[in-house]
Predict the structure.
Amino acid sequence: MAMAAASTGAGNLAWVPQRSTTGQGGSNRRSARVGGVVTSVAVPSRPSRRLALARSELLGSRVHAEGGLCYIGAMPNRVSLSKATTTSSKGRRAPRVTTEMCSILACYDPNGALASGREELMRSLSARMRSRGPDGSGYYGNDRFGLAHERLAIMDPEGGKQPIVYEEAKYSVCANGEIYNFRKLQEKYNLTAAQTGSDSEVLLQLYRHMGSDFVKELNGIFGFVCVGNDGADILAARDHCGIKPLYIGYGKGGSTWFASELKAICDQCDTIEEFPAGHYWTPETGFVKYYNPEWDADDYVGTKDTSHVREALTQAVKDQMMSDVPIGLLLSGGLDSAVISSIIKPMLEETKQKYITFTVGQEGSPDITAARLMSKFLGTDHHEYMFTSEEACAIIPDVIYHLETYEPELIRSAIPNFFLARLAAQHVKVVLTGEGSDELFAGYLYFRDAPNSAAIHKELRRIFGALHNVNCQRADRMTMAHGLEARVPFLDPNVIDAVMQVDPEFKRIVGVEKPEKHALRALFQGEIPEPVLWRTKAMQCEGVGLNWVEDLQTFCEAQVTDADFAAAETKYPINPPQSKEETYYRQIFESHYAGMDKFVHVWEGGCRAGGAAWKNEAYTRAAWKNE
């Protein structure tokens, strides 16, 4: 799979189709127009080896890490921009680095069917996810349960190792995520002195104090399992909108499994389900929905203006700045990250912390240009990574393996995020992002065709309900693939309530006078440079580069034969692929997660806008459609 990148101007790469010179096992030749010069570029041909191999395995870098197969990608050199510096790199490669795999894994086994060898088994299964927690691993259990955890040390790096165990009381917990209001809860309930500085310990304290009822008071991003009375009691829960992932599976001897990612238990359980967002689970109650906001009702009508929104968002940012390690910001160049960046600045100045920002794109892309402008305005220590179309094509297997999906719209948008997270992880362990704003403020351009305000709110409820399978899944999986935690202030429950209580007329798009998210823009007038504040939303990955999605689709089509595509509808009866691109993604997914296709969220009509109650042509299944 030889692959050569254009030597200059890769950011403006555009394929010029020529007659294929592919031979058996060879490569497709294309011409790339770079700065007015046509240059020959080798495009990887359809792999002859089994598709179960991630890109890094194809490059010869497969290793075994403590019982789990771990794929190691070839990482190009990072690019740093200090303040107004504009030096950049286009895909040069540095020595490979090891990526380990993990997060939380729990087994509730009341009959002791898996008692023999459970610890060894769970440690090996947990190793499949070790990228999520490269700072240390732990295990605790007895004949009735087991808890395994791989840690990304953010709060109390020295003393907050998990599972956290109260040995005398026989209570234990393993958790993924952050509880932002843990100190307030400890104070509210006059809890005994914590044994660690970890925010996760409050879960153990509250579980002992009040049982499962405490879950509804948590403000955070989480998936966790608490065990009480030496395994006689157990509680599992997931945050309000599924920012952090969690799966539940049912295995041998009446055992129940919980895992942060599908890959940890996909071959261990007879049946597996996605743990629903905003729910908790006990053996006695089954799933219980604890997140029931007032606005999530058919007859709800928002009546407020936006005057209360900024205060709620500022408090959310302040809460999510909680960390004992440096924090960065993913600065896309769009409105949402610019809003978060504006709120963060005085907080960092007050604490004298370094302001670090990260951007990904192709040279000359709108996102890169806008992010540089915003970085210069804020005076940040700015880092950016320029990826090529060739790199985007090569990284597809790794993205699908970590993302655990075959949904094309999500895969395309995740590819730049993979590069961005890889860059940020070289500098920080935690980043804030602008995810979630569009689902609250009606930020997608197809909302311009909404017939009335009631339809706007109904559609926002629909796409908000899918966040756990779309934006949240992308943000979590791409960052945690590199041991990086992403925090999302717009999805703080108090911010969600504040914005969803706003009269949807404030969210209506009305020509150029009131573009998408104009109500949010108005709140930060004069604090964000005008070209960024009023920049039109970039859709379907077009902000990071102008032609790379077309290049990606051309590549994918070359990997699938006409015969394979013709057989796809029969071979994949659930969500059958509608193009060779979708077939290629599906083949890779099935090689890792055979029989797990039911977990993949596919938009009605093949794209987010396809399920809207009104007709629009803003989106197509393949990509953004210009009007």
Summary: The chain has 19 helices and 23 strands. The radius of gyration is 24 Å.
